[in-house]
Amino acid sequence: MLQHKHRKYGMTNPFHIQYHPVFEREVFEKHPALFDRFLQRTPEHLKKEYQKARETIHKCEGTITWPLIIGPGFCGATHPGADNIFLSNMIGPDSYIYNSDCLYVNPAQKVFALSDAPGITTFSRRLFSELDNHLKSSSVYELETILNKLNNKTGVNDGATISLIGFPGNKSDNRPAEALAFIAGDSYLFHGNIFQRSLIPIAGHAEFIGTPDIHLEPKRIELAEGDFFIIATDGILSLRVNSDKTSLEEILLEHVKDDIDNFAFSVINSCNRSSEEKIYDRVITRFGGSDNVSALLVYPQELTDITCPESSILGGYITTKAQY
After folding, report:
1. Rounded distance, CA 187 to CA 116, Å?
2. Averaging pLDDT over each range in 90-104, 168-182, 198-212, which range is the top one?
3. Average of pLDDT values for 76-104?
4. Do 12 and 308 meet the contact criterion of CB atoms below 8 Å apart?
């Protein structure tokens, strides 16, 4: 059975957030082959620029971070993508550091979601800010109405994916009896069971939030003992770089261990680790994470009743390297 570490989550702090470095200390010194693709078959003037970047990139070690959130019955994380950030630093000093992915956690209402907006944008954060404002005066029972209002309000140019799971409680004891799942776009939502060692994708709308004339309806899932849910953005496909013959569901199940606290950390680390890749006649060492990546696991049996209205929105930012 999935277990959650016995931490004390106070009424004013129903979860906690940890920050981990995108690049560990001395990672570039330990893996000099990471720079080979910038120095091989490259014009001389570009080699000089890349060499300058290589000499200063150690300043990023330990300074650019990604957040991990853990609470009773859930854990999640969002990451800007190690290779994404590495390329940004090698290209030039004026390039952006961004994470268009956004993660939303509302333990009091038992609502959890991820959104991925294409390009360099903060729209997913704005989307979740509006969702959070609606939930302050509404509830999980009204998610269908809320999400369709947000869809109708969103312009086509501000489209984004959303994968959301909410858990209405029984009237008698408020324990989750079913799950309401909403999916729009190419983010993922999976329904799993720890006893059956199963993980099944839940299908939704192919169109993004902001598409006219679509109506988001919930997939209603009756809960059974051992059920859990995984939400992920499309950056999760980095897990398959070295596992072409293994399905994404099988790989994710390997990360679902006996401790739910460790799932998001394990998955995000695996997406962004360095590895060797053969391209035509040469071998290239590179980081995983060529895209922003986010993952969230919810185990409804462990969700507790929290009266504190505190929620959290992580990711969805644009900044410059000078701000780190």
Report:
1. 7
2. 198-212
3. 90
4. yes
Does residue 6 register a pLDDT over 50? Answer: no
Look at residue 300 and give its three-state secondary structure. helix
The pair of three-digit structure tokens given for residue 162, joined into one six-digit string: 């959303």
Top mean pLDDT of 35-49, 56-70, 165-179 is at: 56-70
Give dist(CA 106, CA 216) in Å, integer: 20
pTM given for the model: 0.91
For residues 222 and 174, what is the distance between their CA atoms, to the nearest angstrom?
15
Q: Is 302 helix (H, G, I), strand (E, B) or coil?
A: helix
Q: Assess whether pLDDT exceeds 90 at residue 240.
A: no
Q: How far apart are CA 108 and CA 164, in angstroms?
A: 15
d(CA 77, CA 314) in angstroms, rounded, equals: 8
CA distance 147 to 152: 9
Residues with Cβ < 8 Å from 40, sequence gap 6 or more?
Answer: 282
- Which two three-digit tokens encode residue 44? 């001389």
Q: How far, in Å, CA of 69 to CA of 76, rounded?
A: 5
CA distance 111 to 126: 17
Cα separation values, 80 from 105, 165, 314, Å: 18, 23, 11
Cα of 125 vs its chain's centroid, Å: 13
Domains of the chain: 19-280+311-323 (3.60.40.10)
Nearest residue to 67 (alpha-carbon basis) of 18, 122, 118: 18
First to last CA, the chain: 41
Q: Which among 298, 77, 311 has a CA at the least distance from the CA of 176?
A: 298
